[in-house]
């Protein structure tokens, strides 16, 4: 029977916890989630999960088969939740996705993976101020997640399965977990998002520069829209900022989020007013339905990027002052895809730790 500690209460840590409890019901004796921030906390722009859009729109390229596998799971799971557990905060909306014609079709269009897939007409492209000679559009069944509702829903499921939750101060280094819990856990899940590089600096220094923030900026509006809209490359005449795009996701509880930007390497927490103006101008241009909007909040947050993509891998680190080691499985660095690949990443993590869970012999220090 093994003792597992999850470090991090964002969507990656919570989904990993749920998946472990569901996959190894008789083999995990104790599973505790420790974290410095929890759903409901809005003070930290580097605790990313509360700030996500959040919809499903896989960024995986055709050749990134591992990432495609991860993203498929959540599309299916969100479909089930939207039907059977609306209290999860997951609601189905169509997504209208617009791309340059020169871009390859996304894998989920090519594989006909998404449901209710259709091509957007030239007439609609013109209505949305996109030249049909330059742009193409797809529409399909999709989902929006209200982050806080959803993450609390996950916690409630975890607690029902016997998982424990505890707020702790930010740990300086991953092996500090041993002091905090008073024993050497059989397994630690490192789901610390954009802070993972700093947390590993003493034991895995090459991660420090690999983990990078990708700043986003979002406006929340009261107006509704019956579909999501994404324009990946903005027309030049709109004079958007580099890396700016349009995302509009209506939420189950009403209103929409409007974004955004994808600024790699930017740790700042400042809302840029000129970017907010530009986001609204782009929204008005492509979505005449939202010519008039009431912004009630604007914020920035950091996507947890990582060179080489998400790290789902087992490591073993020496524990200072002992001859023991700490077994850690990582689940961080998912960038802008933390919700849409949450179930697939957690499933991959669960299969990687099967032997560790089976061979557990927890002992005191
Ligand atoms: C503007 C924006 C829009 C987005 N839109 C989407 C979208 O539409 N779809 C989608 O799938 N994704 C989207 N994302 C990405 C998604 O939000 C992230 O991928 C996801 O939230 C990452 O979750 P995480 O659990 O890995 O990290 P986090 O949510 O950051 O969680 C990390 C956890 O670790 C804890 N922690 C960190 N360091 C320590 C420490 N030293 N000691 C103790 N605890 C620690 C924190 O308190 C926190 O609980 C968006 C992100 C942004 C910013």
From TrEMBL:
Its cofactor is FAD. One of its GO terms (molecular function) is FAD binding. The keyword Oxidoreductase applies. One of its GO terms (biological process) is D-amino acid catabolic process. Residues 1-17 form the signal peptide. It holds the Pfam family DAO. Residues 3-349 form the FAD dependent oxidoreductase domain. It comes from the Eukaryota. The keyword Signal applies. Belongs to the DAMOX/DASOX family. This is KLTH0H13090p. It comes from Lachancea thermotolerans (strain ATCC 56472 / CBS 6340 / NRRL Y-8284) (Yeast).
